[in-house]
Structure formats: structure tokens, C-alpha cells
Amino acid sequence: MPYWSCYFHIVWATKYRQSIITPQMETFIFAAINQKSSELHSPVLALNGVTDHLHVAICIAPSVSVSNWVGQVKGLAAHSVNAVFGNLETPFKWQEGYGVVTFGEKQLPFVQAYIANQKQHHSVGGLVEKLERFDE
Fold first, then answer.
1. Whole-number Å distance between alpha carbons of 30 and 124
2. Beta strand segments in 14-132, E
3. 134/64 Cα distance (integer angstroms)
4. Domain 7-132: top CATH class
């Protein structure tokens, strides 16, 4: 495989921005994202979120389009949640859209820290608008 270094920050939300992601669900969502990303040879560099959306820093392999990666991880994550939490009032779903921003290797520590501190950013402020956008 050729050398590549392609950094992406991707964010997406639950259907209707419902605040339904519990810590227990998060475990299965994160596992699904890591599993599918590994299968797609696209290492996850940071992953976190809040009750209604997720952030991922990732290197997506050139053989995989961003939309393909997003579709596959969102699909597996929703499937995993619905398989484990079968007693939900309505099936777990994601919104159709997502936001993606590319960044360079020098910005990686900043992006990783931003993602790691998502819950704090959302509780006390300090959001970076460009990294929070996933719709028009």
C-alpha cells in the first residue's frame, strides 16, 4: 500500500438531535466504530461525544471515501445499539448528514484534545464552531 497521511475530523448526530446516547450505549458505539475502522484500514486517532452527537479524528485510507467510511461506521454503530438495547422506545438512528473537516499533522494534538474533552466543552462552553458543524 502506498504511503498516506490524510487527517479528518468527522462529527454526526443522533436522529432529531435526541439526547439519547448513554454511557452504556457509548461503549457499544465506540467499539463498532473502532471495529469497522480497523476493517477499513483507517485508524481512529480520537473518539468521543455527548448525548446527541459524536466526534472522530481519523486517518481514512485512500481506498475508502469519506462518505463510505461514515456510512459503514454509522450503520454498524446503530445496528450494535439496537441489537443490545432492544427495549428502546424507538430504534436508535443517526441523522443522515455529517460534518467533515480536514487538518494537518501539526493540528492533530489540538484536535485530539478537543475531542477528548467533548463533555467538558459542552458543559462549560469553549466549543470550536467549525468542529461542531454537521449540517447547513
1. 24
2. 44-49, 53-59, 99-103
3. 20
4. alpha beta
Instruction: Return the amino acid letter for 111.
Output: V
Which grid coordinates are listed for 101?
A: 473537516
How far is it, in rounded angstroms, from Cα 48 to Cα 54?
A: 6
The amino acid at residue 73 is V
Give the CA angle between residues 99, 109, 35 to the nearest 5°: 60
Q: Which of 71, 44, 41, 53 is nearest to 14 (CA)?
A: 53
Q: Give the span between the Cα atoms of 31 and 136, in whole angstroms.
A: 29
Whose cell is 467533515? That residue is 100
In a structure prediction context, what are the per-residue pLDDT tens digits for the chain, which is 136 residues long?
678 899 999 999 999 999 999 999 999 999 999 999 999 999 999 999 999 999 999 999 999 999 999 999 999 999 999 999 988 888 999 999 999 999 999 999 999 999 999 888 777 777 677 777 777 5
